[in-house]
Amino acid sequence: MLTEKYISSYCTIAKGAIKKNGEQVYAHDGDVAAFMLAAYQQMQLNYPKFYKMDNLSKLGWLTAEVLLKDSFVKDDYEPEDTAVIIANANSSLDDDIKYWDSIKDVASPSLFVYTLPNIVIGEICIRNHFKGEQALYIQPDFDAGFIAQQVEYLLDNNIQQACICGWADVFEQDYKAVLFLVERKKTDKSVEFSAEKMSEIFNKN
């Protein structure tokens, strides 16, 4: 059965800036690693595991933190009610190359752990105790229609009650994340969920 669905909030990280719902909340001129570390510290986030994450996981995790802050009421849902659906273009290539370089000397277990692209979803779910459906798709570009189809299937069939979806991609110094919080409930700040709306937001950043 078709249900009404809304984008409760969205967050973008690209080109040294973090924006929530179109408003810039942080900016930094450093390289990707310096930028994410500075953002983590400036926002006074308390999650020591962050320091061990690879750049893709840091990017997705930070985007989710900003996305959910003051926008997501966890008590409204059971852990199994929230899905995470993300896509990217480069898979875990940023870490694959680093790991390949490490085996020329001594293979790095800490790098090997992140040679799977869906680890970013795991980090988001562990942080927020999400136990719903999880998927990461590899696509050459952000396919809003495909992502919308996945979200609609989950919510329309009452498999999930909410979904974090979007894009998180990093390779060397090229990075971009755009995540959306999709729920059935409507608020003063929410907008109607659609592939067209996701594309519009994605292409603005």
What structural keywords apply?
35% helix, 8-stranded mixed sheet, 25% strand, single chain, 7 helices, 205 residues, Peroxisomal Thiolase, Chain A, domain 1, globular, alpha+beta
What is the topology?
Layout: E1 6-14, E2 17-20, E3 23-27, H1 32-42, H2 55-68, E4 82-88, H3 93-102, H4 109-112, H5 119-128, E5 134-138, H6 144-156, E6 162-171, E7 174-183, E8 191-192, H7 195-204
Parallel strand pairs: 4-5, 4-6
Antiparallel strand pairs: 1-2, 1-7, 1-8, 2-3, 6-7
Helix pairs in contact: 1-2, 2-5, 6-7
Low-confidence stretches: none
Task: Return the string of H and E elements.
Answer: EEEHHEHHHEHEEEH
Shape: globular
Quaternary structure type: single chain
Q: Total helix count?
A: 7
Major sheet description: 8 strands, mixed
CATH class: Alpha Beta
Backbone structural class: alpha+beta
Radius of gyration: 17 Å
Proportion in β-strands: 25-35%
Query: How many beta-strand runs?
Result: 8
* CATH level-four homologous superfamily name: Thiolase/Chalcone synthase
CATH architecture: 3-Layer(aba) Sandwich
What would the CATH topology be? Peroxisomal Thiolase, Chain A, domain 1
**Overall average residue pLDDT:** 93
Distance between the termini: 33 Å
Helix content: 25-40%
Q: How many domain regions?
A: 1
